[in-house]
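FORM 7B: Structural annotation worksheet

SECTION A. Query
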Amino acid sequence: MITELRERTDLACHRQGVTAAWFYSDTTADQRHAKAVCATCPARQQCLTVALTRRERHGIWGGTTWHERQRLIDQPNPPPGRPRTSQAGENNGNAKITHAIAAEIRRVHATGIGYKTLSRRYGLHHSTIARIVRGEKWQPTR
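SECTION B. Predicted structure
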């Protein structure tokens, strides 16, 4: 997979004017620059997958820092369609997630994590994740 990534010619991090040091810097400003570059890259999800697979400890990969990737790796993956007990519905008793979890899903998706990954992470159908991210009305998956 890393070979496929290296062979791509459309990577945002390889564009003229992009400083490679941004991707390995400890400063917040440089990391922000690197994440902004990743946000425009067509291979962002592929890059993140490579970093997660290789347990890459250094640099910005797929728009995420090592600490952000660790949180993704450390999250338990409940079986799809099964709610976590801590996510019993606030409003109607049937919801699998609270409004706070929905807000977290939106924040995590903004870092470049796809619907399918979020689906596994939160135990919801990917179409429910998509509705949450788009801000549409969502209902519990049955």
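SECTION C. Observations
The longest helix spans residues 28-39. The chain has two domains: 1-74, 77-142.

SECTION D. Sign-off
Analyst initials: ____
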